[in-house]
Amino acid sequence: MVAGETGSTSMGTPQERPLPPISELATGSLALIVVGGIYLAAYVPRTVPLAPAIALLVISAVILAANVIMLRRVPDFGWDRFFQVFKWVLLAYTIIAGMIGYAFVTDGTRGSVLVVLLLMLVVFAVDIPFLLAFSVARYAEPEA
Fold first, then answer.
1. How confident is the model at residue 28, as a pLDDT?
2. Which of 14, 69, 76, 106 is deepest in the core (most CB within 10 A)?
3. What is the pLDDT of residues 13-34, one digit of tens each?
């Protein structure tokens, strides 16, 4: 930054401010869900050992919850922009997750395997909107 500037660079973009590793953790959470989903899908329709998939699901959900808590503690964050992006991306990914879930149901997946798959789809459908909304809102000006 040039001496005398406060809060923005010479190009007019907001100054980078220290934020928790939200993007990195959301990406890690998403990776765990994808690995768990691939693991389960590789076994279907045979008997699936659920312990690894449940462990991946729980770890991913804990990371997502920690991400939400860390983001709530960020002062002067662009919440208006965050929720504007989040709601529309959530709508899109709810439809996508619903279609994937429907495919598993119509393919005959039942019982505890279906429950774990559907819970993974819920984390998937929340994690991506959270990541995209944060990626946009981090550069938005906070509401007054």
1. 97
2. 14
3. 556 778 999 999 999 999 999 9
Read off the pLDDT of residues 32-48 as tens digits, 9 standing for 90 and up. 999 999 999 888 778 88
Give the DSSP letter string of 23-55: HHHHHHHHHHHHHHHHHHHHHTTS----HHHHH
Beta bridge partners of 60: none
- The neighbour count for residue 52, using CB atoms within 10 Å, is 13
Cis peptide bond prior to 45, omega within 30° of 0: yes
Tokens, residue 118: 């559907």
Q: What is the pLDDT of residues 54-112, one digit of tens each?
A: 999 999 999 999 999 999 999 889 999 999 999 999 999 999 999 999 998 998 888 99
Measured CA to CA, the distance from residue 2 to residue 82 in angstroms comes to 30
Each domain of the chain, given as residue ranges in start order, spans 22-137
